[in-house]
Design a protein that fits this description.
By secondary structure, the protein is an alpha/beta fold. It has eleven helices and nine strands. The structure holds N-carbamoyl-L-aspartate.
Length: about 325
């Protein structure tokens, strides 16, 4: 596995220039972003007070795939730092008239902007844009194919850090459609950098990662075995939009084998924390009473997403 971040992500001094992936990012960089998010939580009084760190800056959201949490939270994050935000509407733009991705980006750059927040179904698109910019704008990956979702990895670490002091004692299980999940990949990179004790990935064989992709994780196909004594269970949606053909028998059968029910949660460590990046499919990968139960951090993850995105935007744009 490639341990170094792509060259375009860091400047000559090793500082973040774009945020494309967490893969290979040093623990110090990740911790600095999480500390910044906590500082912004205090400064903005939990997001209720608008700051002006990015006054005069322009952020353009370029979402080529659907999004609720990520898009809204990037929008709010930029606005809460005083930046101007354009939510570029792909469906009513000239991309439907055949304009290429790069022509669209260069057109928007000509109007002056400081950052592009990019979500795209093709892995590598944010990096491709970063390599072809005409300006000094920053590119923030908001999810590319099944490759990376770095701000999700950061926000999951931020949420967890509020509940757990010592990551080196943690057993984390990530269960679901690992194969197609950019969240799983970014979580593995974040949690490995932060030194968790054990990372377990659990999926049906059809949705498991390629052998050897995650040498730092143990791979399970039996969720009852994978969840035993886990301190954290991160559940993932079946990303059918990325599956070639129906890779699972039925949703009911999937829930039987891989769903997180109250009963199954009892096999985990007491007070096991439950997380999910959303959107959740109730009764498929997680039971409603677990998603809404006392061990669930799902809505706290959403709240922390705004703070992490504020931290990344501030880090990348708050320079001359
Ligand atoms: C995820 C995504 O888009 O990768 N959602 C998110 O950003 N919170 C996970 C998913 O779509 O299942």
């Amino acid at each position: 596995m490639n341990q170094s971040p792509p060259a375009t992500q860091l400047d000559a001094d090793g500082r973040l220039r774009h945020l494309l992936t967490l893969e290979g990012l040093p623990r110090t960089t990740i911790c600095a972003l999480l500390d910044r998010a906590e500082a912004l939580r205090a400064q903005s009084r939990g997001g209720t007070r608008r700051l002006d760190l990015l006054a005069g800056r322009t952020v353009i959201n370029l979402f080529f795939e659907p999004s609720t949490r990520t898009r809204t939270s990037f929008d709010l994050a930029a606005q809460r730092l005083g930046a101007q935000v354009i939510n570029f509407d792909i469906a009513s733009s000239s991309t439907v008239k055949g304009e290429t991705l790069l022509d669209t980006v260069h057109t928007l750059e000509a109007m002056h902007c400081d950052a592009f927040v990019v979500r795209h179904k093709e892995s590598g698109t944010p990096e491709f844009i970063a390599q072809h910019l005409h300006s000094a704008a920053a590119v923030l990956n908001a999810g590319d194919g099944n490759r990376a979702h770095p701000t999700q990895g950061l926000l999951d670490a931020l949420t967890l850090r509020r509940h757990v002091k010592d990551f080196s004692a943690l057993r984390i299980v990530i269960c679901g459609d690992i194969r197609h999940s950019r969240v799983a990949r970014s979580d593995v990179h974040a949690f490995s950098a932060l030194g968790v004790r054990e990372l377990r990935l659990c999926a049906p064989a059809e949705l498991a990662p390629d052998p050897g992709e995650f040498p730092q994780c143990s791979i399970f196909h039996d969720f009852d075995a994978a969840i035993a004594s886990a301190d954290v269970a991160i559940m993932l949606r079946l990303q059918k939009e990325r599956m070639q053909a129906a890779a699972i028998p039925s949703e009911a059968e999937y829930f039987q084998r891989y769903g997180l029910s109250t009963q199954r949660l009892r096999n985990a460590a007491p007070d096991c924390l439950v997380m999910h990046p959303g959107p959740i499919n109730r009764g498929v990968e997680i039971a409603s009473d677990v998603a809404d139960g006392p061990q669930s951090l799902i809505l706290q993850q959403v709240a922390d997403g705004v703070l992490v995105r504020m931290a990344v935007l501030a880090e990348l744009l708050e320079r001359d």
